[in-house]
Write the structure tokens for this entry.
Amino acid sequence: MTLQVYLDESGHSADPNVRAFTLAGLRGADDQWTSFETRWAAMLKAHPRQPTELHMRHLYSRSRSSPYHGWSQSDRDLLAVSATKVITDSGMTIVGSRRHLPDDMAQRESIELDYFQAYQAAIHASVQGVPPDEKVHFIFAIHEEIGQEALKETHARILKAYHEYFRDQRPDTIDFARPRDVLALQAADLVAWELSREARAARDGTEIRPTLRELHKLRVIVYNS
């Protein structure tokens, strides 16, 4: 059996306001993903605003260029809560990695090293608990500002290094897609966004979001560093 893992990232180590670089998403079997996609599409259609997709950074942005510009706070929260319920009802596993970043920018590692280490950790987390004779197929989110060929080359090096270091062949293949085209990547975006906000809440001593508490009802395999 091949498991599918959909992953997206949240946070950027070059941004002084960001406290964690998170790469996270969901792992599930084919039947789980089929059920999920049906429910996710129905959730979007049932929302009063009928959005075409979910993107958490834009959802809570006040920019006029946001596709959610003009939405009330209750409409925004309703979409996040409804999407979270679809995820928790799926019964899948949350997987990924989260690298906590120092406040002092001079103490942060290079973006390239941070990226490489986070992705290797996410791959390692994604295969935990998977029998040795099964395979895990990865689908990573790709965004407009990132060159797809460069991303493929980088990920191929990461996967090769993982195989050589861990002697583990469960991580099988890697594909890329845009979140607007793949519903599962929209869910991965929500998971990564919430986990990054959890790091901020821990730093600031504030309560975590109710939607994040809901996500923690699922099995969570996220490596922190």
User: Anything to note?
Assistant: Residues 179 and 186 are 5 Å apart (CA to CA). Helices lie at 30-46, 56-59, 73-90, 111-126, 148-166, 183-204, 210-215. The chain has one domain: 2-224. The domain at 2-224 is CATH 3.30.420.10 (Nucleotidyltransferase; domain 5).
